[in-house]
C-alpha cells in the first residue's frame, strides 16, 4: 500500500517554528542594539553641529549663546533627543537627552554632552547599560 504524502506533518511544522524561534531570539537583541546605536548617532551629529556653530558664533560676537534658533541648529521634527545649551559667555556645554522611553525602550536615559573643547562625553550611555 502506497501512501500519498502531500503536504507536511504537524511535527515538521513544529520543528520549523522551533528553529525560527531560535533564530529570532538570537537576531532581535542584535537588531535592537544596532537600532539604538543609530539613534545615538543623531545626538552625536547634532552636538558636533552645535559645537561648530558655537565656535563660529564666538568668533563673530565674542561670546557663546544658549539660543539654538539663533545658532541655526537644524533639528528634525521627529527626533530621539532633546537639545539644550548652557553658556556663561566664555564657555558652553550642549546636552542631548533622550526623550522617553530612551533609545532602546528601557528606563535608562541616554545623555551626551559637548563643550568648548569639542569632546563628546557619554553622561549616561543607554546602549551600554
Q: How many H/I helices?
A: 2
Query: Which percent band covers the strand fraction?
Result: 15-25%
Helix/strand order = HHEEEE
The main sheet comes to: 4 strands, antiparallel
Structural class: alpha+beta
Q: Tell me the Rg in angstroms.
A: 24 Å
Nearest-integer average pLDDT: 86
Weakly predicted, low-confidence segments = none
Portion of residues within helices: 40-55%
Shape: rod-shaped
Spatial strand order of the main sheet:
1-2-3-4
Would you tell me which CATH topology applies?
Answer: Glycoprotein, Type 4 Pilin
**The CATH homology group name:** Glycoprotein, Type 4 Pilin
Distance between the termini: 63 Å
Count of DSSP strands: 4
Architecture per CATH nomenclature, i.e. the level-2 architecture: 2-Layer Sandwich
Tally of distinct domains: 1
Q: State the CATH class.
A: Alpha Beta
Summarize the structure.
By secondary structure, the protein is α+β, with helices and mostly antiparallel strands. Helix content is 43%, strand content 19%. The chain is built from two helices and four strands, in the order ααββββ.
Output the keywords.
alpha+beta, 2 helices, 129 residues, single chain
Question: What does this protein structure show overall?
Answer:
- There is one protein chain.
- The chain has 129 residues and is α+β, with helices and mostly antiparallel strands.
- The chain contains two helices and four strands; from the N terminus they run ααββββ.
- It has helices spanning 10-61, 68-71, and strands at residues 81-87, 92-98, 111-115, 120-124.
- The radius of gyration is 24 Å and the shape is rod-shaped.
Amino acid at each position: 500500500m502506497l501512501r500519498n504524502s502531500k503536504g507536511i506533518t504537524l511535527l515538521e511544522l513544529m520543528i520549523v517554528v522551533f528553529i525560527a524561534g531560535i533564530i529570532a531570539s538570537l537576531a532581535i537583541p542584535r537588531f535592537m542594539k544596532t537600532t539604538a546605536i543609530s539613534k545615538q548617532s543623531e545626538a552625536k551629529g547634532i552636538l558636533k553641529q552645535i559645537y561648530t556653530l558655537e565656535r563660529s558664533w564666538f568668533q563673530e560676537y565674542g561670546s557663546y549663546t544658549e539660543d539654538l534658533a539663533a545658532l541655526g541648529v537644524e533639528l528634525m521634527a521627529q527626533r530621539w533627543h532633546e537639545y539644550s545649551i548652557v553658556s556663561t559667555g566664555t564657555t558652553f556645554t550642549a546636552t542631548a537627552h533622550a526623550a522617553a522611553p530612551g533609545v532602546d525602550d528601557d528606563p535608562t536615559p541616554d545623555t551626551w554632552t559637548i563643550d568648548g573643547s569639542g569632546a563628546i562625553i557619554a553622561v549616561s550611555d543607554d546602549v551600554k547599560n
